[in-house]
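Students often ask why we bother predicting the structure of a whole assembly rather than each chain alone. The short answer is interfaces. A chain on its own may look different once its partners are present, and contacts between molecules only exist in the joint model. In this exercise we take three input lines together and write out one structure for the complete complex. Read the inputs first and try to guess which parts will touch.
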Amino acid sequence: MFVWTIVASVVLTIAAFLAGQSRAAGMRMSGGVALHSLPSYHGMFLAAGAISGAIVAAIAAALVIGTQSIVMPVAAVVGAAIVAGVLYPRINGEFRARNSFERFILFVLIACSGVAVLTTIGIVFSVLFETIIFFREVSPLSFLFGTQWSPTSTPASFGFIPLLVGTFLITTIAIVVAGPLGLLSAIYMAEYAGPKLRSTLKPLLEILAGVPTVVLGFFAALTVAPLIRNAGESMNLAVASESALAAGLVMGMMIVPLISSLSDDIINAVPQSLRDGSYAMGATKSETIKRVVLPAALPGIVSAFMLAISRAVGETMIVVMAAGLAANLSVNPLAAVTTITVQIATLLVGDQEFDSAKTLSAFALGFVLFIFTLALNYIALRIVQKYREQYD
Amino acid sequence: MNAPFQSIVTPASPRIMAERPMKIAAKDVNIYYGDKHAIKNLSIDIPDRAVSAFIGPSGCGKSTFLRAINRMNDTIPTCRVTGNITIDGRDIYDRDIDVVQLRAKVGMVFQKPNPFPKSIFENVAYGPRIHGMSQNKTDLEEIVVSSLKKAGLFEEVKDRLNAPGTGLSGGQQQRLCIARAIAVNPQVILMDEPCSALDPIATAKIEELIDELRQNYCIVIVTHSMQQAARVSQLTAFFHLGTLVEFGDTDEVFTAPQEKRTQDYITGRFG
Amino acid sequence: MTEIRSDFVAKRYAAERRFKYYGAGALVITALFLLFLISDIAIKGFPAFFEHRATVEVTIDPAKVDAAKPQAGDFDGIVKDAFRSLFPAAKSRADRKALGGLLSQGAADDLRDMVVANPALIGQTLKVPALLSDDADLYFKGMQTGLKITAGAGTLQIAQSGEEYVITGDTGDLREGQIIRANGGALRITKLEGSTVVAEAVLAPETLNTAVAGQWDMLTLSVKEAERRVNDKQVVWMEQLRSSGVIEKSIAWRFFNSGDSREAELAGLKGALVGSLLTVAVALLLALPLGIAAAIYLEQFAPKNKLTDIIEVNINNLAAVPSIIFGLLGLAVFLNFFGLPRSAPVAGGLVLALLVLPTIIIAARAALKAVPPSITEAALGVGASKQQAVFQHVLPLAIPGILTGTILGLARAFGETAPLLMIGMVAFIADVPQGFEDAATVLPVQIYLWSDLPEIAFQSKTAAAILVLMVVLFGLNAIAIYLRKRFERRW
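Now the answer. The structure tokens for the assembled complex follow.
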């Protein structure tokens, strides 16, 4: 019924536009009235009224009766007709149709900007409500400090610590891989590579950044994990087939382009005069980079790492496909651990009952994840902003 | 330095040269930025323990030539230098010359003060540290303090050596940069319009400092201000469109220039 | 005391070189990883674009296929019988089952489609290619076992003793586990006792004649029978098919033409591709106007105040929120609160729209910012309203930049998986979705689903699906790069 609702609204909007335009044009033709606005603005004014009426009525109908019923397109038609009918008599020579229409447009623009805010509010409320219900059944203390996570067993236990440790184990591996690789690549690209080399290296990193995470997950699970397992076995090490190392390594490679492009920007923002000052003292390029450029860029680089951590913590597909499901409390990179995102995904895939603590716990995890990444992002973005202001 | 100065081709043979040994000699220097010919067939002899000022309208190549003396132009990929520039008779563009050591010997102070985002102490200690000039902390402190003293900044900052260098005023920052340059014990100090970003009071202090430093160093200063050149320098070189028009004792260049173009410039007909 | 130590300088230059190598090394490692990733997936996925079929002679028996209702005909029986008739010796139930295992369900479906389209074929005898099962297909692709066929060099005497066979003669080259093909049968060597070889029948030989050089050969298989999904008997049959020339290899168009299936050889991407298109279309239709409108407001009309700051900070933060959180939002708000259908492109599209909205807003703002204010001023100067200036002059100039950003956002939406798992787009759906409210899955989720299946054939299909996804993404990015280059304007 969505399609029909849209078709009906569009048809009525066009009709309203034509009606308004021809009424205004007719006035000019017959009475010789000097219109304040062009006839097309009168048309658009009426069309704006019609489409608002249609949207409001259709949403109301959908909320009351549901999206599947014929009522929705009918309501759209009725809503559009009523609003257009009410506004139609207002069209006359003195009516400032352009100003009214522009006010409407401005309102629409503001509303569209508001969608982003609404999304954030939507996220907060959708996870918060379920989380509150969850905490009625499970005490927040046993959630935050419990060391046993088994939501499907009876009795279920919801101790968050193993997930936290698992998430940080994999994130740590990822950052240990991505940090040096990303930062060194950025340094090489910003300070050593000529423009030609740079223009070949940048797309390389962009390709890596554009690889969907489900692809990396497949690669981690089916290629990297067996490789690590075989390598481990040949050294007589017990490696789980879903080792944290495999997921962490691939996740690290995923983050390399993020750290590298952020750091590249940051390093390029360090003023040339500082480099000149150092070269003029007789410093070599690497001394200049290590002792002047990097310290100057430090806040920006720290924030790049924070964004990278936030990205690693929130990454889902790689860990869903390559990390384990069992919540082992372990910091051994060769063992299988599980993460917050893996648990959210597994708890919510398939049929859900919204009255069970098992399903609700996923929202509690989502809440923790959201707050954590939001805090990291917020601080990181603030640091970058401050940093840029300093050198602008 | 025993080469008789008469043997060197210069547009003028300044009186002051007879009194002081020669430090820097450039012969038939050409500098290109890509296709742009920035310095054309320039030859000049610059004496030690004196201030030589480069003046001329914007884009005349005076800064370009200054940056060629410590090979700062090497950092610009499209830049090419031909001819030869010697310091104490050694060709600085020779293959055997190590840029790093050259730059330690030829310090530079820039247009805009550019202290590193580190403490005052670390700014001055930077050079000695990278060149491994001190054996221990006491040595290093000694170098830092004496450099700050030479730059006339010590009294103002002695209580806050660990405060960031960027927190100083513009004039103090520039003196910090001079202290930073002196700390590696250079023989030549190049200054690229060191006062253009400063107010008159700070400028006066820097000029005073330059006058003191000339007792021990060969100083080359590029300046936009003819008054400044007249105040601080013993020799003045006038650059125009990439060529050296005239080089001589400051008094003579300003009072009785030999070239018409110099005359026109200092009387304000162009530039 | 303050002299530069020249021994120090050499060390410093060494450090300089090392540092440069670290940087280059980091880039080389990254490039190698990318190369390894792409080549690994290409090698795994490439075979899945091909399929093997065996040409069999079928008779469309009117007794089995009713001309009035050809759909209901017993095509399965017809194809299987025709296939079995190639191996008249295989009579036992187990043998017939093993033979049937080489053939795909799809063989009968293909024949049904053919006859339904042309009922005149009923009663006729014709040669048709019959699709092989995934196991047989993998065998012919060389992914089940390595195989070496060596022509017999000497003379063998074969004698039967009870269940076993005893082979004597020039047996010097024979090894345990090898299969000897001679006298119309196949014998697997179980024991070597000096020059006497004990073997068991894979296919019982028709005679016990002495086989001279050229009349027998031996098959050496690199993977043990227990570790592969076709047994020795099936291998012998398939080798017979291969040498009789009925096996043909062709491009597996059904990979693009059909929906998902439990049978690896039949599973295709059409459902997922259509699902992806529908979902991304919804996302684009919503996010593009919303994003441009928000960008126009923030860049051109918004007053500098606290509220605008909040909106800006909010958008920047939203761009970095983990995608799985958007899935939770979709589940709680769109599915539970608004009651949108589960697994439907409309719900998925809504979630993806919100996900890419910040990206599009940020890109559109950058494009709008790049238009110099002199353009607006010129329009205002001739008496246009601010809105007329923006919509008639600034926006058209910013469109290429906005499009570039949008396409990159689209690429992100196309490859996104996690939030769609939350709203049920992860179910097994064999049918191609017909509309925005049908249950559907999308390409990346299909990849996730297939990657979880144990069959090797599905692994290969997963890699092939990844190749398709990557081609789509490369295409989108290429368009974006082209647009950027084509319309790049320096003010």
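Check your guess against this: Residues 270-487 of chain C form a domain with the MetI-like fold fold (CATH 1.10.3720.10).
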